[in-house]
Design brief:
Number of domains: 2
Largest sheet: 6 strands, mixed
Number of helices: 20
Strand content: 5-15%
CATH superfamily of the largest domain: tm_1862 like domain
Strand order of the largest sheet: 2-1-3-4-5-6
Structural class: alpha/beta
CATH architecture of the largest domain: Alpha-Beta Horseshoe
Length: 601
């Protein structure tokens, strides 16, 4: 148990944002591990504000704590100032609910959303007093488990985890906790518990390197979803009610890992969503509802859902927002529905600047779609439109980069034209975010290496020169960070020593531009004799065994190869919800595409 007096009087006055570390928030559960048969510390390897925004974390917290048999607490990566104070005062990582030391929990479960959090994972384990390498942990150490999309290739961090959950976590979390409780009653040794957990479907054991197929929730309406969230004292990145309207996407963008590994599409029912929204607004006090999914406007009843939420909540001053919109699913009708709420910027993701390139990535939208959607938005009163693009994609040329600049300029002119009619021409803005393509496992582009850092930097400069225009704001993702992400996304176990060394050198929060230390990462790779370009920039052959081939995320390798071959010819593959089955293999887990109202395809 943490010494609260030391924490409150000596440590917290020395750090920024001390409220990150005190807990006791509205709707948090404070029972204590001693009151439960099995306990888990849900660990998010990023700062509190980021972790408190992640819906999967909220779901697991609710599922575990809804059972009187189990208890879950939360821990987040301490900011460098807090980590320094914790080390100075020998304060261990602890759960926010009861201030129990991390090492006192039966299980520490890390959510791995992003490859650039790996050094934070190791720093948190080190603060917990848990050996970094699974092979040297002893009888009294917690079982360390990972989950999340990075589990689709766990090999670079396999050495640090006893187990990795593959697929939907809510499908397996209760089984894990029940098995831990059963084994504890039997007095089983730690190794026996780990072996027993590895036999659960969807659980990968790096020591055994057992082939594993993902777990998948078949029916979201039957799955547990929180009716109350822990409300942070500190404003989170997404500080609002997050309402997951559906899971999965079958649009088939060939660069998109989430669109492949979360198949098939499963929608929540309209009445269920309205009920959840009502309970969440009442239990949290939030004044915004965000309709969450990979493409919320693709929800088959999004207009009716928006209308009902407006009727129910607008009178309370509660607004609704949609995340990134596909340009072909935005409509004037939806814009006008949301206009009844507080108007914020609308985000569209055309991804590429030319039609050929959009066909290569199977985006399935045209320039006319984008211009029509932007026109609808501007004419409905929006003054800010955000556009997302990607550079470095397979088969890209400089003409495709020219297309990005041209498209952005024309959207801005369209907005100004609409604004002039309203007498507000000077207020229109177009914000453009340009990321670098990172090849990800279990996608049609998994075989393609990333452009070299020099080539990505050249492309950024090329675009920057062509997009200097008042009202047009452009931001680029850090090339070195994208390179590191690609190496970890596509690499194998040889990368573990570099991650371990980088953590020892002081690398933390590598996904944060003001914290990322490319020089320390270069030093780490040099010291352990590993060349990250071997994984980031090298292309794999179609017949080559890939480091993640033993992880089955539901979509077949044959399908991914066919899609890669179609990409080279700029051929489109239709969405299976509106056309014939594409044979991806994702419907073999007992789950099929399920639309709101119970319709199945």
């Amino acid at each position: 148990m943490v010494d609260k007096q030391v924490l409150y009087e000596e440590i917290l006055p020395q750090v920024s944002q001390p409220v990150r570390y005190v807990g006791n928030e509205l709707n948090s559960v404070r029972r204590g591990a001693s009151e439960a048969e099995a306990s888990i510390l849900l660990a998010f390897p990023d700062v509190y504000e980021v972790g408190m925004s992640y819906i999967g974390f909220k779901i697991l917290y609710e599922i575990v704590n809804s059972s009187p048999r189990f208890v879950a607490e939360r821990a987040f990566a301490p900011w460098p100032d807090m980590e320094a104070q914790m080390r100075l005062y020998n304060l261990p990582l602890y759960g926010l609910e009861t201030y129990s030391s991390a090492s006192s929990f039966d299980v520490i479960g890390f959510t791995l959303q992003y490859e650039l959090t790996y050094t934070n994972v190791l720093a948190m384990l080190d603060l917990a007093g848990v050996p970094l390498r699974a092979e040297v942990r002893t009888e009294n150490d917690p079982i360390v488990i990972a989950g999340g999309p990075c589990g689709s290739n766990p090999e670079p961090i396999a050495a640090f985890f006893d187990l990795v959950v593959v697929g939907d976590g809510e499908e397996v979390i209760v089984e894990i906790m029940s098995e831990v409780a059963r084994k504890k009653r039997e007095g089983a040794e730690r190794a026996d518990i780990v072996n027993s957990l590895s036999e659960i479907s969807g659980v990968y054991c790096p020591r055994h390197k057992n082939p594993v197929r993902r777990r998948v929730v078949a029916d979201l309406d039957e799955a547990e979803f929180p009716r109350k969230f822990v409300v942070p004292f500190l404003e989170a990145v997404h500080d609002r009610v997050a309402l997951e309207v559906m899971r999965g996407c079958t649009r088939g963008c060939r660069f998109c890992q989430a669109g492949m590994i979360y198949r098939p599409v499963r929608e929540r029912g309209l009445d269920n969503l309205c009920s959840l929204a009502e309970d969440l607004v009442r239990s949290t006090g939030y004044d915004e509802i965000s309709l969450l999914s990979l493409s919320s406007a693709d929800y088959t009843q999004v207009t009716e859902l928006s209308r009902r939420l407006v009727e129910e909540h607008a009178k309370r001053g509660v607004t609704v927002s949609l995340p990134s919109l596909r340009v072909d699913s935005f409509s004037l009708e939806l814009a006008r529905e949301l206009e009844k709420f507080r108007r914020t910027g609308l985000t569209f993701a055309p991804e590429a600047g030319t039609q050929r390139m959009r066909d290569v990535i199977n985006k399935g939208v045209t320039e006319e779609d984008l211009m029509s959607a932007a026109r609808d938005a501007f004419e409905s009163g929006w003054d800010l439109v955000k556009l997302y693009f990607m550079i470095g994609l397979p088969h890209e040329t400089d003409e495709d980069l020219d297309g990005i600049a041209d498209l952005c300029r024309r959207v801005l002119e369209l907005g100004r034209s609409a604004a002039r009619k309203r007498g507000k021409a000077g207020r229109v803005r177009v914000n453009v975010s340009v990321s670098s393509f990172v090849p990800k496992p279990h996608t049609p582009f998994q075989w393609y290496g990333q452009n070299s850092r020099e080539e990505l930097a050249r492309k950024q400069d090329y675009l920057r020169e062509r997009m200097r225009m008042r009202g047009l704001s452009v931001s680029f993702h850090d090339v070195e960070a994208s390179f590191l992400e690609a190496a970890f996304a596509r690499g194998g176990r040889e990368l573990a020593p570099a991650i371990e060394r980088a953590m020892a050198l002081g690398c933390r929060f590598d996904g944060w531009s003001d914290q990322f230390r490319a020089d320390l990462w270069r030093q780490a790779f040099e010291e352990v004799g590993v060349d990250p370009s071997k994984w980031a920039n090298a292309s794999y052959d179609f017949d080559q065994r890939l480091p993640w081939d033993h992880i089955d995320m539901g979509v077949s390798k044959d399908f991914l190869r066919r899609e890669a071959e179609r990409a080279a010819k700029a051929e489109l593959t239709p969405d299976c919800r509106t056309g014939a089955c594409t044979g991806c293999g994702a419907c073999a887990d007992g789950a099929r595409t399920r639309l709101a109202g119970g319709a199945w395809r």
